[in-house]
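FYI - complex with D-ribose, inputs then prediction.
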Amino acid sequence: MVAIASDHAGFHFKENVKMLLEERGIEYKDFGAHTDERSDYPDFAHTASESVSRGECERGIFICGTGIGVGIVANKHIGVRAAMCQIPEAARLSRLHNNANVLTIGERLIDWETAREIIELFLDTKFEGGRHVTRVEKIHTLTSL
Ligand code: RB5
């Protein structure tokens, strides 16, 4: 199950993401926004992040104008590793090396073709494991919270 969320600025990409996931037969839960009327990205990113943190959703794809705001919110949640990606190679490496479980993208920064490529790499690339396991574990054990 993939959690998807956006604010107004990411709404159109979010609707495209739903179509992409449907094409691929992947289940998703849409945490809003449900229109492109002005809204506050933390309202949607927090609830969607909670679903990833609790393990109800294995992955998340969150979108705002830049991908930055939703990413900041997501990374406050225990167990969430959100990667803001603007180029496909970043999405590939976020899976290979960081085992990212949330992808954040900015609808105002990249076109849909690029976003689609980023999303497909995020969905299709497996964590490399090996030397990266300890590093990823340290993300969650060494915290100042
Ligand atoms: C909304 O105008 C915009 O600030 C928001 O979508 C996001 O880019 C924040 O990080």
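Helices lie at 11-23, 41-53, 68-74, 88-96, 112-124, 131-141. The pocket of D-ribose is lined by residues 7, 9, 41, 64-66, 68-69 (CB under 6 Å).
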